[in-house]
Amino acid sequence: MGNKKSFFVLSLSIIFFLLTLSVHAEDNSGIANLRQTSKAFASVAKKVSPSVVFIQVESIKKDIPISPFTSPFGDDLFKRFFGDAFPDFPNQQQAPSERRMTGQGSGFVFSIKKGLLSNKSYVVTNNHVVESADKIHITFKDGREFDAKVVGTDPKSDIAVLEIKDSPHPALVMGNSSVLEVGEWVIAVGNPFGLSHTLTVGVVSAKGRTGLGINDYEDFIQTDAAINPGNSGGPLLNLDGEVIGINTAIFSRSGGYMGVGFAIPIDLANNIVKQLIDHGEVTRGYLGIVIQKMTAELAKSFNLDVKQGILVSQVTEDSPAAKVGLRVGDLIVSYQGKSVSEVGDFRNQVALTSPGTKAGLTIIRDGKRKVLSVIIGNLQKSPQSAKAATQSSDELGLIVQTITPDLAKQFNVKPQGVLVTDVKAGSLAAMAGIRSGVVIIQVDRKAIASTAQFKQAIEKSRKNKQVLLLIRDQEMSQYIVLKWP
Predict the structure, then answer these.
(1) pLDDT tens per residue across span 221-253
(2) Is pLDDT at 181 greater than 70 in this prediction?
(3) Domain 177-279: which CATH class?
(4) Average pLDDT of the chain?
(5) Which one from 51, 196, 205, 232 is the annotated catalytic residue?
(6) Residues β-bridged to residue 374
């Protein structure tokens, strides 16, 4: 009996010992994995830091002081009101004074062009970092300093390319942002608040962010890697040290890091940067349509079973789209054989298509699929400055206009709805308090994005002798009911 008891105790002791070893081994394995990840971050830092730059910019702003006796309108203020009885004074106008404005950001060496006498290094950054700069100064991690000149800028994508000479620093390797997955580790390197070559780590929070109003062309990678003022233009990298994005913006209520940063995917940036280096400007493809996302409500109103695709809400006269017969109400479901579901992504695809290219558009019209072959136009040579289509609703006393990017900037409004450009005195609209500059967002609880949609919605409402409008005046939205007599 005693031998059995001793054997049992010994067995328990051995099992406990083995479990302890197993737990200890698992702990060591976990720590080893963390160490390995840490080493990967350190390896990327050593690999890329020599090619990341600190950018300092300087601009000079002239202030023209006003004489105590001269009005801002160029008239002698006192003589204007008191006449010749007011005595003459010597010219008190002072010479313009200059204010030096400074800024900072980040960038990285994109490519190097070797020459017989000297090498040129091209540095990529954000346009907003160097915009209006009179002097641009670049500093590398090893302390080498260079004056840089602008090769080309593209405000629509917020990308700029700078050039420096005699730099031995290697160019970073470009990755493939299209294969990036949500949840993957990413690394940001830059100069937040002027703190040179700061590395932060996070993950890809989301992809394909559009409609943020940051750039005209958007397809952002969202990350929680810490990005702060000064990081703009720096690289976002994968664990192999390849550039997969250009850090551009943050979402913040405080001005600092709040866990939401945005980077331009390198697949989008590559095409733009190469055009800037080769030509100093960017040429974009052009179709000549206004589009909007297909929703379940729109699909129902158009008697469509599909919920994927983008809806054509306006077609510009004599545009490439008009020439192949694209119509308002057509649903675009694929472009160049690739499915279409997001407005921003479609705009980017068209913009990156070289002018003169024959592109295939698959549309659904009246429930039937149709393939159109369109010759992509040149956005720079398109009639962008032509007056946008307007729509009059005489009974309501309103004239509205589709909101183009230029109008949105001019009136400081969001590019959604239609803009009221004129209100007839004494009309239903005027009596309801609607005025020029107001944006009509919805008609009878349905969003509108063009004058054509506005006209259709008003015609439907006419039967009920009243219409419900959701309007936005500056930052305030409200519903207004207009009733026909």
Answers:
(1) 999 999 988 899 999 999 999 999 999 988 877
(2) yes
(3) mainly beta
(4) 81
(5) 232
(6) 359
CATH number of 390-483: 2.30.42.10
Both tokens of 28, joined, read 């060591």
- Predicted confidence at residue 148, as pLDDT, reads 94
Confidence of residue 73 (pLDDT cuts 50, 70, 90): very low
Amino acid code (one letter) for 170: P
Beta-bridge partner residues of 135 = 58
Name residues whose C-beta falls within 8 Å of residue 393's C-beta, 6 or more positions apart in sequence: 399, 400, 454, 455, 458
State the catalytic residue, choosing from 128, 313, 330, 345: 128
Closest among 152, 189, 112 to 272, alpha carbons compared: 152
Contact 74, 113 (CB under 8 A): no
SS3 310: strand
Domain ranges of the chain: 51-82+97-165, 177-279, 289-346+353-375, 390-483
Residue type, 464: N
Using DSSP's 3-state secondary structure scheme, residue 311 falls into strand
Q: Kindly state which CATH superfamily the domain 289-346+353-375 is placed in.
A: PDZ domain (2.30.42.10)
| Average pLDDT of the segment spanning 11-30 | 61
- pLDDT band of residue 454 (cuts 50, 70, 90) is confident
CA-CA-CA-CA torsion for 322, 326, 331, 335, nearest 10 degrees? -80
pLDDT at 128 (0 to 100): 92
Architecture of domain 51-82+97-165: Beta Barrel (2.40)
Q: Annotated catalytic residue: which of 154, 158, 219, 267?
A: 158
Taking the CA atoms of the chain, what radius of gyration do you get in angstroms?
A: 30
Q: pTM of the predicted model, to two decimals?
A: 0.66
Residue 169 designated active-site: no
Distance CA 335, CA 332 (A): 8
- Does the active-site annotation cover 142? no
Length of the chain in terms of residues written = 485
pLDDT mean over 49-68:
76
Summarize pLDDT for 128-173 with one digit per residue, the tens.
999 888 999 999 999 999 999 999 999 999 999 999 987 778 899 9
To which residue do tokens 């159109």 refer? 372
128 is known as an active-site residue: yes
Q: Taking 90 as the threshold, does the pLDDT of residue 218 lie above it?
A: no
Q: Which two tokens stand for residue 242?
A: 């390849």
The CA-CA-CA angle for residues 177, 181, 185, to 5°, reads 90
Q: Is 222 helix (H, G, I), strand (E, B) or coil?
A: strand
State which of 72-76, 359-363, 396-400, 433-437 shows the largest mean pLDDT.
359-363
Query: Residue 201 to residues 47, 178, 237, 251, 439: CA-CA distances in angstroms?
Result: 15, 20, 10, 17, 42
Contact of 139 with 53, CB cutoff 8 Å:
yes
Equal CATH topology for 177-279 and 390-483: no
Residue 64 pLDDT level (bands cut at 50, 70, 90) = very low
